[in-house]
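## retry 2 of 3
previous attempt timed out at serialization; input unchanged, resubmitting
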Amino acid sequence: MKSFKRKSSLSRILLLCLAVLLLQGGLSAQAAPKVLYNARITTLFPNSTTKVYEKPDTLSKVLTNYKPNQPIQIVEVLPNFVGILQGKRVGYVLRHRIMDPVAVDFANTPKFGTAVNHYYTIAPHEIQVKAAPDSNSETLLSLQEGAHVGFLDVENGWARTIFKRQYGYVDTRTLHELLMVAPTEEEGTDELPIAVYNSFYDVSDNENNINRINNLVVGGQRMSKTLAPGQRMDFNSEVGPFRASNGYLPAGALVDGELVFDVYGGGSCQVSSTMYNVVLQLTGLTVLNRAPHGANGAKYLPHGVDASSGGLNFIFRNDYDFPITIKSHVQDGALFIAIYKDS
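## retry succeeded, writing output
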């Protein structure tokens, strides 16, 4: 009995010592965030430094400034920022201020920028995409009955999507049903998609935008098809040529990162870029050719995950041992693309 008491007393002393060390910072109470990617600060701006913010917000406190080409370790990827190890804490850098992200654990880490959607819905009536998981927050977009939208996840009753370069939220209580994306490619069917993604566009009624929306519809329809195992999707060949005889209208387009008007098929790059984000989620689809829209990319998507068409091209190959079917839907500001396993 005396031996047991001595051991208990010793255990209490050790626990007290451990608590003191934790309070004094002698031991870390929380493990450091896992490093996902190694990268560098971009050299596209050789005469300026890159700010590291306390929060993923350019109005927050600046912790420090990094010089071009400085190595960084990425622990979190957000639509407009990356979280990086900054000493013993996490700081935030705008995505367009980094370059050459490489996965630390290549076999178990998705390609940088991959956003896996686990759910989607077809709006049963008007639903709102909010700027925060709060019904009183700003409404980013209203979607009408029949619109399709994909979601990354659901937390506390709010489904989360990527709205351009921020998160958007939909109250699941306003939905009749939340549909699943297949957990694995093998479980997919011709009705259960293996990957989905959507991007958002302006719904204003000026002529340029009406023409652009027309081009999204035409491009999505021409891209909606089945690819056999080993077959390629050559975007320019399959979805183009971008001319009036194929249903395209003149609209604004990004050329070398600059907006140029009256380009037939203007806006079709949003179709290829949205498709690219679906492809990124699937290990059996191999990207053969892809180019971004200049240094800052296309602002309807997070930086670094756009795919230009027209003068450049987007090409990928189906390396699964089964056919896949591509379907698209354009409505109310949402361009939605899904891939199914074809039986």
